[in-house]
Amino acid sequence: MRKSHPIRRVVLAGAATVSGIVLLLSLKPSSDPASAAAGAAPQQTAAAQESAQGGNSGQAGTVTGKAVQTEYGPVQVRLTVGGGKITKVEAVQAPSGGRSTEVTNMAVPRLNQAALAGQNAEIDTVTGATYTSAGYKQSLQSALDQMEKAGGGSEADAGAGAGAGAGSGSGTDPGAGDGAGAGDGAGDAGAAQARTVTGETVQTEYGPVQVRITVKGGKITAAEAVQSPSGGQSTRINGNAVPKLNAAAVAAGSADIDAVSGATYTSAGYKQSLQSALDQAGG
Questions:
Q1: Residue 196: closest CA among 242, 118, 257, 139
Q2: Distance CA 44, CA 265 (A)
Q3: Directed axis angle between helix 181-191 and helix 155-166, to 10°?
């Protein structure tokens, strides 16, 4: 039998040891990235959450206006708000059933689009959907009011406050135009803010009439009848008369408007409620 040389055994043993060390080193790095990724994951998740929140001012949320009862059913509007702006408008309730479904499907998308474009409740009534439009605008305004309260006041309010401190102290007076530039500019912003006022309910021969107006810069920018006689012949008459009275009120900027032929009682009640709204607005 041939004997193995001692030196050869030493060389083989050394080669085996080196191979084992190389194998261990090659296995160690493969586990490090996984553990590193596992350690980094919570940090990345926290950062992603912080980025998604982005502060209260940029966070998206929804605001739902009050449900308004109309002649043909309730109307309720919901807004999606992000970054201080309306990003989506939808009617979560609207008249349905029979002819109402057809009218709603025609009118609501137009009202949604108008509200999103205007970012306010000063939108036109959709022809053929007077009651739905009136209820929509009323619910929309209530949602906007909630949105403003949640935001801690409007930009115009902040401007008026700054004007009172930096200007002549009469920044909120619409008629003051002689003060320093900073104060007067902020005052104009406060005076130009839209305001909604609802007149008294006036009982007529055929039912109640109540008018709501939106006033901005001392002028009527929108008028609507939140109540008017309805049922039978009254619905047809007022469907024709009320839009004319609304348009006349905005055009005249006062309650000195003509009665609509064939709607004498409604016209008289409308003008009386309109005047009471103007009195509240100081006009």
A1: 139
A2: 69
A3: 150
- Taking only the tens place, the pLDDT of each residue in 101-147 is 989 999 999 999 999 999 999 999 999 899 999 999 999 999 888 88
Nearest to 134 by CA among 214, 66, 209, 70: 70
Biggest CA–CA distance in the chain, Å, is 134
pLDDT digits (tens, 9 = 90+) for 1-35: 455 566 666 556 666 666 666 565 655 544 444 44
In angstroms, rounded to a whole number, what is the distance separating the alpha carbons of residues 56 and 146?
Answer: 16
User: Terminal CA-to-CA distance of the chain, rounded, Å?
Assistant: 126
Burial 149-185 (b: 16+ CB within 10 A, else e): eeeeebebbebbebbbeebbebbbeeebeebeebbbb
- Four-point Cα dihedral 255, 256, 257, 259, nearest 10: 90
Confidence at residue 31, expressed as pLDDT on a 0 to 100 scale: 44
Helix (H) or strand (E) holding 66: none
Q: How confident is the model at residue 150 (pLDDT cuts 50, 70, 90)?
A: confident
140 with 118: CB under 8 angstroms? no
Question: Which residues neighbour 263 within 8 Å (Cβ) at sequence distance 6 or greater?
Answer: 237, 238, 240, 241
Q: Give the closest residue to 125 by CA, choosing from 102, 107, 109.
A: 107
Q: Cβ(195)–Cβ(263) under 8 Å?
A: no
Helices first, then strands: H and E counts in the chain: 7, 8
DSSP letters spanning 230-251: -STHHHHHHHHHHHHHHHHHHH
User: Mean pLDDT score of the chain, rounded to an integer?
Assistant: 74
> pLDDT grade, residue 231 (50/70/90)?
confident
